[in-house]
Write a structure and sequence with these properties.
Blueprint (H helix, E strand, L loop, with lengths): L6 E8 L8 E3 L1 E4 L12 E4 L29 E6 L4 E6 L2 E7 L3 H14 L8 E4 L14 E5 H11 L12 E4 L13 E4 L4 E9 L17 H9 L3 E10 L1 E4 L3 E5 L1
Parallel strand pairs: 9-10
Antiparallel strand pairs: 1-2, 1-10, 1-15, 3-14, 4-8, 5-6, 6-7, 9-13, 11-12, 11-15, 12-13
Length: 258
């Protein structure tokens, strides 16, 4: 039987640059029909690509440097400063590049560093792209990606491995629901104790990016194929739209309604 709440926010993450590892957050202010602030605000084109900053539109992730094809990205630690648009990337605890992504010089420094780290699957010089207000999510809708801690624990048991939540690139990790019950929440709403409301609209179909260990960059599991073979689908996690905005933080609770 599905537990209907309360569910607790265990972790919050954002991804200022699509493909790079997440930044953990303590709290964040959500705006209706928007992503987390600066979530996937930048992406790294894999050589010449179709994205036009003057006419931004959703394009497939295959055009970008990403974990599904470029697992070396997992070895990079990234920090982004909202106020200065400065990105810092480090490898093995050592800073390797820093740059203001609003400037050509800053982007060039980051692109040079990424080209040295990503040694497989590049189709040309990487290019950092962005457009005001655009998000490079895997889905066209501006939304929040939610996964369930109990589903992670269940999958860990099934695989006989300790699964890191970051494999699934979540924005919110929620604790307190029955395993796999989030997949049945399409059309339901999650209302936080502070009044923020999310509406679940789509299950997340997983790709090979989840096979990469976020600490080592090693492809050590085959999660989508295992899900398909075992459960008959490759879904893990859900997408939700922000209906009523507000501040949310670690430890906040959600009730499921609707």
């Amino acid at each position: 039987m599905t537990k209907v709440g309360p569910a607790r926010i265990e972790a919050l993450y954002r991804y200022p640059v699509k493909g790079l590892m997440p930044e953990p957050l303590e709290n964040v202010v959500l705006t209706p029909l928007q992503t987390l602030p600066f979530d996937r605000a930048y992406a790294i084109e894999n050589g010449p690509g179709p994205f036009d900053p003057a006419k931004p539109r959703h394009v497939s992730k295959i055009h970008f440097v990403m974990l599904m094809k470029n697992e070396e990205l997992a070895t990079l630690h990234a920090e982004f400063d909202d106020k200065t648009s400065t990105l810092v990337i480090a490898k093995a605890g050592v800073e390797i590049a820093r740059g203001d992504l609003r400037t050509e010089a800053g982007r060039n420094r980051m692109e040079d560093a990424i080209a040295k780290v990503v040694t497989s699957g590049l189709r040309g010089r990487p290019r950092i792209v962005s457009s005001p207000g655009h998000s490079f999510s895997d889905v066209a809708a501006k939304c929040v990606h939610v996964i369930n801690r109990q589903s992670i624990e269940s999958l860990s048991t099934m695989l006989g491995a300790n699964i890191d939540a970051r494999r699934f690139r979540p924005n919110l990790v929620i604790d307190g629901l029955e395993p796999w019950s989030e997949l049945g929440l399409i059309g339901k709403r999650l209302r936080s104790n502070g009044g923020t409301v999310l509406e679940v609209f789509k299950r997340t179909q997983r790709c090979a990016a989840t096979n990469v260990d976020p600490e080592t960059g090693v492809r050590d599991l085959k999660i989508p194929s295992f899900l398909l073979k075992t459960l008959g689908h490759s879904d893990f996690g859900v997408y939700a739209r922000v209906i009523d905005g507000g501040s949310i933080g670690i430890g906040d609770t959600f009730e499921i309604t609707g």
